[in-house]
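Changelog note: in this version the structure field was regenerated for every chain. One regenerated record is shown below for reference.
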Amino acid sequence: MEASSAACGNRAARLIGMSAVAVVVLAGCGVRPSAVIPGGPAPSGAVVSGPPGGEALYFVLAGQPTAARRDVAPTDPAGLLRLLAAGPDDAERAAGLTTEVPGNAAPLSVAVDASGVTVALGLDVLALSTMATQQIACTVRHLDSALPPVTLTGGGHYRKLLGCPEAP
């Protein structure tokens, strides 16, 4: 009886082993081996909402200042900064754009001369986050990348020589 049990156990082990091999072989049917196919880098760059001829406002996407195009007539820096202070529109928000520029940061004046661009705001500029200052500087400098650095004034303080981390 013991020989019969041992033979039956060996048969069962062989059957299980062959079944496992069959499952592995059949699982690979129809799938051809290939080399690694690189996907390339993740998409990045400016988010465009509106026609390419519009003006660029810099909002925030994934922690970076990101250009969004608006279908507006070419305007001066003060006009663009008023639009920036109003925040992203519905389509821009749907694309994930946010802002750190407060709504009350619309400029009182913008002066451009050989020494730089000075933006006077109706709030204390020390209350602005670094990202908000970058949004403002990038929006102004996108009009003309040859413009000198931006200085923000307001609340009796100033933040000087602001540039855009990614030249527009």
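Spot check on this record: The radius of gyration is 31 Å. The chain has four helices and six strands.
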